[in-house]
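Sample 3 of the quickstart, ligand adenosine-5'-diphosphate:
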Amino acid sequence: MRIAVHDKDRCKPKLCNFLCMRVCPVNRTGGECIVEDGAGKVRISEVLCTGCGICVKKCPFGAIKIINLPEQLDEPVHQYGVNGFRLFNLPMPRSGVTGIVGSNGIGKSTALKILSGEIQPNLGDSAGWEEVLDRYRGTEMHDFLKKLSEKSIKASFKPQYVESIPRIINGRVIDILAKVDELGKLNEVVDDLDLKNSLEKDITEVSGGELQRVALAACLIRDADIYLIDEPSSYLDVRERLNAAKAIRKTTEKIVYVVEHDLVVLDYLSDNIHVIFGEQGGYGIISNIMGTRAGINEYLTGFLRSENMRFREEIRFGVKPPTSTKKMSVLVEYPEIRKKYDRFSLEVDAGTVKTPTIRGILGPNATGKTTFMKILANTEKPDGKEVSIGVRISYKPQYIKATEEVVISLNMKGELIDRFRLTHLLDKKLCELSGGELQRVAIADCLSKDADIYMLDEPSAYLDVEERLSLAKYLHSFGYDNKASVMVIEHDILLIDYLSDELMVFSGESGVFGKASGPHDMREGMNMFLKEMDVTFRRDPDSGRPRANKKDSQKDRQQRESGQYYYSG
Ligand code: ADP
Ligand code: ADP
Ligand code: MG
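Result:
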């Protein structure tokens, strides 16, 4: 089956004068394949479309997709209007934590919204509940949908974009949480998520990480039948991510769905997972349910066995022999660094930057990681003597300013435009981009410059899992091919593990003081960091990816006893 998907936001007939209608061969011979839709945009007939792809190529805004679907599929369970995105199926709700993994724009939030009752499924057209229930009659899904149709399912939702919360709700954190504490679990959850020091603050004053934890707390203390948690780890550091995962896992007698792009976190919190695949903005299909370990491994291989479906090339995280940086050449040495702000002080050991190396930088939020990068990049002054390392630095900041600047002026390398899928963004202004698009532009911009040291401050923020994996693979070869030094501040352990030759570890008390040591070799650095985090990691024998051990499991106890928090063997 062939479908035509048309992005109404991108479609700008005023600028192209309906170019697609003019080039369509069916239209040119008198047919009405592409027509004006009555609202100033276009509609494409899937019956008349021959799949020639000319409109797709000619549309200057990349607004049209003609997609051949992989196999004979049923009609979609939901479609956003004519030529809109289609979701083909739903996961079957069951108790326990079910993870959902897949790229952005593939229907994850749509699926969650249907399960929560927020969207009524329309079977691709304008079906009502009766027709929906008819289609599912005799299946396990029927009972759940019936309850949804009767509005007798109560859902508790943690939205993806926590930034918008302070615009909707106001007041002190404690008052906001107390109001929704239907389970009487407020104190327990505040402990689990380490929110004690945030309770008295006004919701407009908390940091991104606090906001994420407040939003998660509000979701978990409600009394609901189904909990839907969309990307809980954004803005959180490693310890906070693991704590959030543990808190979510206390709700396993209920139905819990979690969308997550950090594969270590997804692995740690899920009982089972679904992969969702298809085409971004086009259509989505939810895989059969899989055990977490096998499911994530299948996801990395890009091949779903029970569906017999390849959705991309394999991404391998082979265990590399620990890289020795001893033989690499020294690019610069930097002295001890000290910096005091009103309420925060930082101490960084003197160190050496070698090429080519990739340095991972790990540590809790607000311990001075960004400040360290800024001082090396000479955009912030340290106390005492200036740190002048006299090499070219290209720096991608943590927070990217979305200015009026037009993207195309950024002078990016063609290879990076392809790699980071920026072609269709080139005519846009930075302030029009989504978080993930802005991040991709900023990374490509940073890597397009000629430099000796490339610094990337939390590049995975807002990126989906596919983009993270592709970034990891790319950065690795980028550093070596360009004989450059790459430094990456990250909370996604899978990326750090895959990328880094050496590690710098920050510790201290968030917002009060920070102390950094290193660079250490991977084993030493990871051991230090994980000991501080109080968690041990093993390696998956099949995929080579790192996995967090459950506390007090046999492996966890063995590794703690032998001091091997990071099992690299
Ligand atoms: P994900 O959560 O996987 O990022 P979503 O389920 O939010 O994806 O969206 C899937 C696709 O559906 C996207 O292409 C999005 O643009 C489209 N979409 C989402 N909501 C709507 C809507 N209300 N109307 C039209 N299209 C929508
Ligand atoms: P990290 O990158 O590890 O999250 P940062 O280096 O951004 O941490 O910040 C460390 C601490 O320093 C934070 O508590 C932050 O509020 C404080 N800080 C950063 N920049 C300034 C500044 N210009 N003035 C005062 N305090 C600052
Ligand atoms: Mg930072």
